[in-house]
Design goal:
two-stranded antiparallel sheet, four-stranded mixed beta sheet
């Protein structure tokens, strides 16, 4: 069971989520590295998309999707990139948004512009 307490604002996030699932998955911080080349993609929009694609791939390995994410923490190397990141993020989550925190920090691994960690939850997994 997942009950979303919706945000009345314009941001793609929920105020809170009440969940009662059997499994919880904590996803380590992901950055916009292309798995084929091992290289960090350029620009905040591309890094955000690649980071979320990498998270999506992790979730798919156990039969889940982005809709299983209940909490995302976003680290930005520059808060001036928040609007661009948020625009891309909003394309990946279209309803029942996860709760979310965005934090500006001094530096990220490999000079990334964005890093995202997530908690996902579900009642069954594919092993």
């Amino acid at each position: 069971m997942k009950r979303v307490i919706e945000n009345s604002g314009a941001f793609p996030l929920s105020k809170a989520i009440l969940h009662d699932h059997k499994y919880t998955l904590e996803i380590s911080g992901q950055i916009g590295v292309d798995a084929k080349t091992g290289e960090l993609v350029e620009e905040i929009e591309n890094q955000t998309a690649k980071t979320l694609d990498n998270i999506k791939q992790i979730l798919e390995e156990i039969g889940w999707s982005l809709s299983n994410i209940i909490k995302a923490t976003i680290y930005l190397s520059d808060m001036n990139n928040y609007a661009k990141m948020n625009e891309v993020y909003g394309k990946y989550f279209t309803k029942d948004y996860p709760t979310r925190t965005a934090i500006a920090i001094k530096e990220l691994p490999r000079q990334a512009l964005v890093e995202i960690t997530c908690t996902a939850s579900g009642d069954k997994i594919k092993i």
